[in-house]
Structure formats: structure tokens, C-alpha cells
């Protein structure tokens, strides 16, 4: 048996290729939409992808199951569990508790593991060439290394009301009945790693075992003591903010993501073409340079995606394809580099990349307004209508923030403008922890018409400056007291 993990660092998302080397058949679970890597991996191992499946209706990325099935002719499987409200809206074979997929010598058994979502499936894998007992468990968003899938995303991202409590109860039952009943040796391969918003304490290890989680996971004691309420209370406490684009992912994954098919290479735009498109609103520039270079000067209204490594995440924060039809032009050295950004963008359903420009020469320029921590108080005094906005997670905000700031996550600012002052009410002064998330959020808000001032170095710089001020004040006080005692 072959088992390969395909991991997307951008979205902290894992998909898996399982292959029977005897027959050359392969199954892919939870693929993303840029499917080239799966095709190349299967070809590398001399296999053909005959089955594609997913664990649940995802919220954090746009599923590639339909895309991969269409490209390979593979049979597509999705969950038939969860009731009518969780039925998929596209043609696929349905799997329910105990159903199996035969893959040469390999048997894949579906287990219904609700909690993160009502329809969630996990897949127990048995390598029949060696044993008739399962040895591997693809748990999707059910069990992670060191954590379990959060049950509150339907409330946070999909507009449901108080489903988190029923979900938490279901998760407790799933752990009890569909996880801890398995032998300790079973290898666990989760759908996410550290950095995902699908849990609050995900580990970075690519896999774990039933026995390890039984002994060391934070939830293990609650299960051992049959303490359902204690489990629920700790599970729901301190979950991170859900990004606003999650709601769109849920909707699109349920009805079936649009098929991309063969994608054309991004074309080069001249400065004149790009300037005209920016002027009439048919194009939007994505500035891919680091934050400090953007602050030195960029194109007015440009979006900021400071690195390829988080391009899917950041474009999901900064651009809403359901409300914005401007074609995206990325700052990239060539078509190949631009296409890499396109691969990341389609993972969150942003399919509108049309081209690239290798330079900003010949385009209008502006310098984003910033304010240094030492000048913040004076700026706020001068602009009494200014509003401080902390774009970090609510957990970060609760641990410490600039006094007077309100919290609105960078992944929500574009979509929750009703929680911000009117655009003509005065400037917004925004910050995150170090400045990267803030640059993305600030650029998105500027493009919609807000007057945004970024706090230089964000909270880390402000905190260091404030600590320095306190130290200097304490030193002066000690010096004065010493001088007075000497007199």
C-alpha cells in the first residue's frame, strides 16, 4: 500500500493519496482545486486515480473533488449522512456508516463521525496485503494531532444559531464510539495542521496514533471520566475567529464548486493597459512585495498579498468574488510565477486572475499613510474622530491591546464593514501583531474607500515602545527619589 500526504502550508490543509501497488489504483481524499500535484504524484508512482472522496463539506478551502474526478474519470464519493440539510447538491456516490470502497488489496471503510459538521465522515483503511485489521485512519476535521475539530464554525461562519452545543455533544460521542474503540496502533492522518482555524490547539506533527491521543490529548481525561460537560466547556472556550470567506466556502462546497478545466496561462499586461483597467475598475492590482516595500510606495487601490506562502489566505480576506468582478493582475516576474499565485487563489474560489505585470513603472503611485507608535497619541488627539482597529484574533486582543481599540479580525474587515464607522467619518488606525495581516486588511479597506493609517510595526512595536516609556519613567522616578534623599 502507498500512502502519500499532500500538504498545503498556506491553508494548513492536508489531502491524501492512497494507492494499491498491486493493481495501480489510487484514491485521493480531500483534494484542493489546483489538481496538478495529484496527477503528477499518481503518474510518478505509475498509478491511476480511480476514486476521489471527501470527508465533509469544507469551510476553509474550496474542494477539488469534482475537479479531480472530472479530469480523471474517477468515481466521486461524498457523505450521505447528516440529514437533508447536509445533502450535497451535485451528483456523486453517497457513503454512509460502514460502507466500503475496494481499492485492489485495500479496503476503505466510512465511519460517520459528526461533531465538526453533522455529515462528517472519517476513513478507516485496511491494507489487505498484510492484515484484515485497519491500520490507518483519515480523520479529516474530526481528530487532529493534539486537538479535535471545532464544532462552532457553523455558527461562526455559516450563519447557524447555537449549533455549537449539539456539535460538541456529537463530537464527544464520536470520540467515544468511533475513535477510542480502535486499537492504539492505528495511525491517524488528520485534515489540518498547526495554523488552521479549524481548531485552537492543532499540533504540527503530520500524524499521530489512537494510543497517543488517548494518553496525551487535552480531551483524553474528559473522555476517561465520561465528563461530557467539562469537555464541551473547554472545547468551546477560546476558539479563534473564523474568516469571513468560510461562509462562501460552505455554500459553494455544498452545491459543488465550479469546474476550472484547463486553465490558460496569465498574460502580461502593459503599463497602459493596466492603468486603464485600474482607472475604470475592470482590473485590480495585487501587490506581492513585502510590507516595507509597499509602504515605500504602491499603486493606489492595490491589494496587498505580501507573500506566495499565504496567498490563498490573504486573497480570501481581501477580495470577495461574489461582490467584485475586477480581474486580478499580480505583480510577478513572469507567467509561471503568476500562475503559482493563481493556484493559491483558486483554493479559496478566487478564479479571476487574468494576468501579471513584472513592474510598477509607468503606473500611478502613492505612499500608504502610517503612524509611528511614538506619534500615535498625538495623531489621535489631532484626529478626534479616528478609530483604532485591532485586526488580530479576539484571543490576541484579550491578552493585550492598544487602549481604546476595537477588535475586528483581518479576515472579516472587508465583509463586516457595518461594524466600522462610515467611510467619511474619519481615519481608521489599524494594527495587527507585526504588520503583515494589517497590510492585507488596510489595503483591502483603502480599495473600498476608507482612509486608513497603519500603525508602524503594529502591536509589537507599540508594546516595545510603551515598555520603553515605562522603563524611562521608572528610571526618572528612581533618580529623582535618590536625588531627594541625598539632599
TrEMBL record:
InterPro entries named among the record's database cross-references: Metallo-B-lactamas (IPR001279), Mito_Persulfide_Diox (IPR051682), POD-like_MBL-fold (IPR044528), Rhodanese-like_dom (IPR001763), Rhodanese-like_dom_sf (IPR036873), RibonucZ/Hydroxyglut_hydro (IPR036866)
Coiled-coil annotated spans: none
Keywords assigned by UniProt, alphabetized: Hydrolase, Metal-binding
GO MF annotation list: hydrolase activity
Superkingdom of this protein's organism: Bacteria
Hydrolase in keyword set: yes
Rhodanese domain span: 382-471
UniProt cross-references to PROSITE patterns, sorted A to Z: RHODANESE_3
Identification of the protein by name: Zn-dependent hydrolase
Organism from which the protein derives: Citricoccus zhacaiensis
Amino acid at each position: 500500500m502507498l500512502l502519500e500526504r499532500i500538504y498545503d502550508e498556506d491553508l494548513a490543509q492536508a489531502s491524501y493519496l492512497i494507492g494499491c501497488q498491486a493493481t495501480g489504483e489510487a484514491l485521493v481524499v480531500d483534494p484542493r482545486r489546483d489538481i496538478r500535484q495529484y496527477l503528477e504524484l499518481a503518474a510518478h508512482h505509475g498509478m491511476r486515480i480511480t476514486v476521489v472522496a471527501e470527508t465533509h463539506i469544507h469551510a476553509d478551502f474550496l474542494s477539488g473533488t469534482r475537479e479531480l474526478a472530472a479530469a480523471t474519470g474517477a468515481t466521486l464519493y461524498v457523505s450521505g449522512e447528516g440529514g437533508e440539510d447536509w445533502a450535497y447538491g451535485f451528483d456523486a456516490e453517497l457513503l454512509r456508516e460502514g460502507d466500503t470502497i475496494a481499492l485492489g488489496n485495500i479496503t476503505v471503510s466510512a465511519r460517520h463521525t459528526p461533531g465538526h459538521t453533522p455529515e462528517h465522515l472519517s476513513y478507516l483503511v485496511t491494507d489487505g496485503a498484510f492484515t484484515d485489521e485497519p491500520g490507518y485512519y483519515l480523520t479529516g476535521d474530526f481528530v487532529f494531532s493534539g486537538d479535535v475539530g471545532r464544532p462552532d464554525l457553523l455558527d461562526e461562519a455559516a450563519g447557524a444559531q447555537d449549533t455549537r452545543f449539539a456539535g460538541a455533544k456529537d463530537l464527544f460521542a464520536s470520540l467515544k464510539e468511533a475513535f477510542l474503540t480502535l486499537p492504539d496502533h492505528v495511525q491517524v492522518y488528520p485534515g489540518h495542521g498547526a495554523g488552521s482555524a479549524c481548531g485552537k490547539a492543532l499540533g504540527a506533527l503530520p500524524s499521530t496514533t489512537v494510543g497517543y491521543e488517548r494518553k496525551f490529548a487535552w480531551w483524553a481525561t474528559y473522555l476517561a471520566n465520561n465528563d461530557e460537560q467539562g469537555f464541551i466547556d473547554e472545547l468551546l472556550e477560546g476558539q479563534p475567529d473564523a474568516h469571513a470567506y468560510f461562509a462562501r466556502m460552505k455554500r459553494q462546497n455544498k452545491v459543488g464548486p465550479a469546474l476550472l478545466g484547463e486553465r490558460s496561462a496569465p498574460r502580461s499586461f502593459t503599463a497602459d493597459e493596466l492603468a486603464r483597467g485600474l482607472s475604470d475598475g475592470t482590473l485590480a492590482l495585487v501587490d506581492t512585495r513585502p510590507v516595507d516595500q509597499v509602504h515605500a510606495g504602491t499603486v493606489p487601490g492595490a491589494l496587498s498579498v505580501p507573500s506566495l506562502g499565504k496567498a490563498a489566505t490573504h486573497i480570501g480576506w481581501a477580495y470577495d468574488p461574489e461582490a467584485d468582478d475586477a480581474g486580478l493582475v499580480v505583480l510577478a516576474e513572469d507567467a509561471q510565477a503568476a500562475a503559482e499565485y493563481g493556484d493559491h487563489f483558486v483554493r479559496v474560489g478566487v478564479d479571476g486572475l487574468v494576468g501579471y505585470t513584472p513592474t510598477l513603472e509607468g503606473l500611478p503611485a502613492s505612499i500608504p499613510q502610517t503612524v509611528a507608535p511614538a506619534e500615535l497619541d498625538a495623531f489621535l488627539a489631532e484626529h478626534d474622530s479616528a478609530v483604532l482597529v485591532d485586526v488580530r484574533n479576539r484571543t490576541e486582543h484579550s491578552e493585550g491591546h492598544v487602549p481604546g481599540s476595537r477588535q475586528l479580525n483581518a479576515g472579516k474587515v472587508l465583509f463586516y464593514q457595518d461594524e466600522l464607522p462610515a467611510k467619511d467619518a474619519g481615519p481608521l488606525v489599524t494594527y495587527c501583531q507585526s504588520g503583515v495581516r494589517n497590510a492585507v486588511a488596510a489595503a483591502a479597506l483603502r480599495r473600498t474607500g476608507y482612509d486608513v493609517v497603519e500603525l508602524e510595526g503594529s502591536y509589537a512595536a507599540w508594546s516595545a515602545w510603551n515598555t520603553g516609556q515605562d522603563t524611562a519613567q521608572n528610571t526618572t522616578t528612581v533618580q529623582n527619589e535618590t536625588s531627594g534623599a541625598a539632599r
